[in-house]
């Protein structure tokens, strides 16, 4: 494992041109660590256990049932008066009528009809966009306490095939933006010469770290157990122990007709189900009402990139959000960067020149799975728990987004010794 990490760390190469970060250390860290009454803070951040799509523990659970149980478990755990919630935003991608089922789930969980709800879909960043939406509403003074959720059932609501009219599809970029995500993985591997061997090396790091974290009980600290149909769901069933380099090398290409045919089931993110949730408010309200502050939301950034190379978007989203916050890459203690595919993840790590020991310390989506709407919140939950264990201060989370976009966010850990 360590040999693999050392090998990976020798592969970094610098960013080029105007996209290059001006410095590795920023001037805004000390300011961000100051506590102000109008800070937007997180008082609760947990996730459900995740399930393997079509085979796992959540394969028959629709998102209204999953959301309802998560809302109920959250209210029971926090003792939050549901009438005190000013707004809810749910990030999700593919269920039919997502607003209706999210609203129904909230009502069934005992959240009063006076509490409004919305949904947001920016594909893989939907959960982060839900956090941003609630945070921006608080910052604007429209609300003072809200709930951000990310949820997806890829078992029951797989990605629909996008269809555009011929006049739109005649545009090369329009054509590229609706292609399967596996195709974009192969385009990145082909364009940037990301070999199958390199992809498997990064995948092995993810699998090995996740298996160790599971064995050590690390994920139990971020999972909120929920009762579903008489069974308590509290452990991920997505992580595969004992993954080896030899085993990864034997896997057949998942997309043999595209590009270099180097993407496999072992070096791509899993397809899965799950939900995650954050409660946000102002520091002033948290202190006045005795809520435990665990983190501060700093800000988020969204970028666009060439659709066929959508996976490289964190290369641009991370420097953008760091610049907004007055930070450099070395200011960040933990990065959670979504591993949609090892092809794009490897290229992002090497271009960003971030030490691999700071990125996805407990594995990423290649090992854990990637329920699209959930991931943006799940990475925040996971990253904040890791910061707490390390007594670290700053988290940066980022992901590529289908159709050719990327997003990133910055959070401050306040669970320090």
From TrEMBL:
Keyword set includes Nuclease: no
Catalytic activity line of the entry: an acyl-CoA + acetyl-CoA = a 3-oxoacyl-CoA + CoA
Pfam families assigned: Thiolase_C (PF02803), Thiolase_N (PF00108)
MF GO annotations: acetyl-CoA C-acyltransferase activity
Superkingdom assignment: Eukaryota
Pathway named in the protein's UniProt entry: Lipid metabolism; fatty acid metabolism
Transmembrane segments: none
Keywords: Acyltransferase, Transferase
GO biological processes: fatty acid beta-oxidation; phenylacetate catabolic process
Active site, per annotation: 124, 370, 400
SUPFAM superfamilies assigned to the protein according to its UniProt record, in alphabetical order: Thiolase-like
Annotated Thiolase C-terminal domain residues: 292-411
Listed GO CC annotations: peroxisome
Residue span, Thiolase N-terminal domain: 40-283
Signal peptide: none
Similarity comment text for this entry: Belongs to the thiolase-like superfamily. Thiolase family.
Entry protein name: Thiolase, N-terminal domain-containing protein
Species this protein is from: Russula ochroleuca
């Amino acid at each position: 494992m360590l040999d693999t990490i050392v090998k990976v760390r020798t592969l970094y190469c610098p960013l080029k041109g105007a996209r290059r970060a001006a410095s590795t250390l920023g001037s805004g860290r000390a300011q961000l660590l100051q506590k102000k009454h109008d800070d937007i803070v997180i008082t609760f951040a947990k996730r459900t256990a995740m399930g393997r799509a079509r085979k796992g523990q959540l394969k028959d659970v629709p998102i209204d049932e999953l959301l309802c149980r998560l809302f109920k478990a959250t209210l029971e755990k926090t003792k939050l008066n549901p009438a005190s919630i000013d707004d809810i935003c749910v990030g999700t991608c593919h269920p039919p009528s997502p607003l209706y089922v999210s609203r129904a789930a909230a009502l069934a969980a005992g959240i009063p009809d006076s509490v409004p709800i919305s949904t947001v879909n920016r594909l893989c960043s939907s959960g982060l966009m839900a956090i941003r939406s609630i945070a921006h509403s608080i910052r604007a003074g429209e609300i003072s306490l809200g709930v951000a959720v990310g949820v997806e059932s890829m078992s029951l609501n797989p990605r629909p095939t996008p269809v555009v009219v011929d006049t739109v599809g005649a545009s090369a970029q329009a054509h590229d933006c609706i292609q399967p995500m596996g195709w974009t993985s192969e385009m990145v591997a082909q364009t940037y010469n990301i070999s199958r061997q390199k992809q498997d090396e990064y995948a092995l790091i993810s699998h090995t770290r996740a298996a160790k974290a599971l064995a050590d009980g690390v994920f139990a600290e971020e999972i909120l157990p929920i009762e579903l149909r008489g069974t308590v769901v509290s452990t991920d069933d997505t992580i595969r122990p004992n993954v080896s380099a030899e085993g990864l090398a034997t896997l057949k290409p998942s997309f043999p007709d595209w590009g270099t045919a180097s993407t496999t089931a072992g070096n791509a993110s899993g397809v899965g189900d799950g939900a995650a949730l954050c409660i946000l408010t102002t520091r002033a309200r948290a202190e006045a009402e005795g809520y435990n502050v665990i983190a501060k939301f700093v800000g988020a950034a969204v970028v666009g990139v060439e659709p066929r190379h959508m996976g490289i978007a964190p290369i641009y989203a991370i420097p953008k959000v760091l610049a907004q916050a007055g930070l450099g890459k070395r200011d960040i203690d933990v990065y959670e960067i979504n591993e949609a595919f090892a092809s794009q993840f490897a290229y992002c790590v090497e271009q960003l020149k971030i030490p691999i020991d700071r990125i996805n310390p407990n594995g990423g989506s290649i090992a854990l799975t990637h329920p699209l709407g959930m991931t943006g919140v799940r990475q925040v939950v996971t990253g904040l728990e890791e910061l707490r264990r390390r007594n670290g201060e700053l988290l940066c989370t980022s992901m590529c987004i289908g159709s050719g976009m990327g997003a990133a966010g910055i959070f401050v850990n306040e669970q320090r010794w």
